[in-house]
Amino acid sequence: MTIEWTKKTRFLRILRDGQAADRPLVSAWRHFIEAERDSELLAAATVAFQREHDWDFVKINPRTTYYAEVWGNEYDYEQYDGVVPAVAKAQISTADELRRITRRPADAEPFREQLATIAGVRRELGEDVPIVQTLFSPLAVLEYLGGHRTLASYRPAIREATPLPGLLAASPNEVHAALRHITETLAGYARAALQAGADGIFYAVLGLARDGYLTEEEYETFGRPYDLMLLKEIAPAPIILHTCGPEAHPERFADYPVSALHWADRAPGNPPLAESLSWSESPVAMGGVDERLFAAAGSADEVARQADEAIRSLTGRPFVLAPGCGLPLESDREALRALRAAVEQQHTPEQ
């Protein structure tokens, strides 16, 4: 049977069915901090980026703080450190304040704002362009509620900088209660996002699995159970799990019920994409290109080389070509065009 390959059929074949298509999927994404506090502006910026580069699917990049804002965190949007605004007010400064974290409705602000963004992108791009909405894990949201940005990208893993170890040790029962409420809230929101027009979820555990941050036992106790609880609620929608930065241990998530595993395979301490074949039969590998390359003019040739190498290493396998993390705020257009063009150079025969 001949398959008519569209963005939607390719997306579903690779991420829903876990099978190779005519070629790998390709996508990239970035923050639009000048537009991220307004649903119409964020939708417009996302659509313009998609129309310029013709990605196989759109990953919406909301502001990093919107999850914590649901419970009342406040931020100074005049002061950004990269893509994260400065904390003005955090909900948790002591273990006693964990009781503030109760279940919130799926249409609470700013969830409602994000649902409007999804609907706006869908309206402009039509039904054939798949949309994936970003969702942080419950433990990552708890860390934001403690007034600390969760570890991401190449920021150093400094255990003493995060409030999580102290909270986990001092008040485990209260932490579990808060995490249950966060999980239930995020599950309701994720279902609402799918109803609003998203085709899947980009589930970010960020850098919580990195060496030197939380211990593996801490993550197994306070991260994994709530990941699995939430992922079960999102199923059967396609889910991309992102573990961020160097030493991000994607192999620890290989048994999660997700469609794809995304990690910075070019970062120190991380396995190459092809190595995933030895420890993962189910999730599709995603990555291939160092996201830092896109910050430099003249990097298009190296982007093309890394992309070609990644595609060849997984020939015949379902695969998603992407940078290892979000793009720099200012990215070289030629490098982005080279990434998009890479998947057109090679094709996987139809089965």
Secondary structure elements and pairings:
Layout: H1 7-16, E1 25-26, H2 39-53, E2 58-60, H3 66-69, E3 74-81, E4 84-89, H4 111-125, E5 131-136, H5 138-145, H6 164-170, H7 172-196, E6 200-206, H8 216-222, H9 224-234, E7 239-243, E8 260-262, E9 284-289, H10 300-313, E10 319-323, H11 333-342
Parallel strand pairs: 1-10, 2-5, 5-6, 6-7, 7-8, 8-9, 9-10
Antiparallel strand pairs: 3-4
Quote the beta fraction: 5-15%
Tally of alpha and pi helices: 11
* Class based on secondary structure composition and strand pairing: alpha/beta
Order of helices and strands: HEHEHEEHEHHHEHHEEEHEH
Helix percent reads 25-40%
Using the alpha-carbon principal axes, give the shape.
globular
On the 0-100 scale, what is the average pLDDT?
Answer: 95
Protein traits:
two-stranded antiparallel ribbon; single chain; 351 residues; 8-stranded parallel beta sheet; alpha/beta
